[in-house]
Amino acid sequence: MAKFKASIAQIDPVWDRICSEAENAIKDEPLMGSLLHQCILHHARFEDALAYRLSMKLASAEMSEQLLREIADSAYEAEPELVNSARADLVATFERDPACHRFLHPLLYFKGFQAVQAYRLGHYLWEQGRRDMAYFLQMRISESFGVDIHPAAKIGKGIMIDHAHSIVIGETAVVGDNVSILHTVTLGGTGKEDEDRHPKIGNGVLIGAGASVLGNIKIGDRSRIAAGSVVLGDIPPCKTVAGVPAKIVGEAGCDQPSVSMDQLLKKCMGEG
């Protein structure tokens, strides 16, 4: 058993840690044993547990847990990058969210993480031409998590969506890697225009609570958007913007604002 666990840790240290945390959680709270066994310890791989959890959260009278599990299993088998992105999102959530104390927390409890992984399934289906099923998943994600992400949107990995109330991401939006988004954020259009009409968010960007980024505009890498801002024009890299409409109010203040999660209008600790 010890040798088996060591080999699993070498292959997938994220999954090994989740399993260890689940065992410890059962010792701390035995009443959670059934849930933790069903969601984690009964599964051999991270992707199996993820497929199970998403299917249970998204199932309804219109689409059974079994059918959704088959869709997820097939997607993860065909496109391993979906699982790699999920691992990156989970680690990002653990590192950036001070309320996340275990790796298993996003998988079990955090609707921001779960919504992004469900979106990733919908995006995969969209790319495969299964548009109606992708739209169905978009509907269920909105109903279950309060997050509305069009399945055609393109989202990188290392994404952390904190709290995840009322998130809206439009059809032609693009979100880079290592982006942090707080609640009530909109990446939307400015009217009824067709074609490319939504924002392009660079890598390492931090978007504060209640911010709206509207139109086919570019937000430069490692920028910060202050809470409540309305961004209507391009933002250069490494800047902080605030206000309605948003204006540049200073530098981003650090190399990775999405990781530091510093939302005050000042430079990050130890900088400048």
TrEMBL record:
InterPro entries hit by this protein: Hexapep, Hexapep_transf_CS, LbH_SAT, Ser_AcTrfase_N, Ser_AcTrfase_N_sf, Ser_O-AcTrfase, Serine_acetyltransferase, Trimer_LpxA-like_sf
A GO BP annotation: cysteine biosynthetic process from serine
Catalyses which reaction(s): L-serine + acetyl-CoA = O-acetyl-L-serine + CoA
Family: Belongs to the transferase hexapeptide repeat family.
TM spans (from-to): none
Protein name per Swiss-Prot or TrEMBL: Serine acetyltransferase
Top EC class of this enzyme: transferase
Gene Ontology terms, MF aspect: serine O-acetyltransferase activity
Lineage: Bacteria, Pseudomonadati, Pseudomonadota, Alphaproteobacteria, Rhodobacterales
Domain of life, source organism: Bacteria
GO CC term (a single one): cytoplasm
Keywords for this protein: Acyltransferase, Amino-acid biosynthesis, Repeat, Transferase
Pfam families associated with the record: Hexapep, SATase_N
Species this chain originates from: Marivivens niveibacter
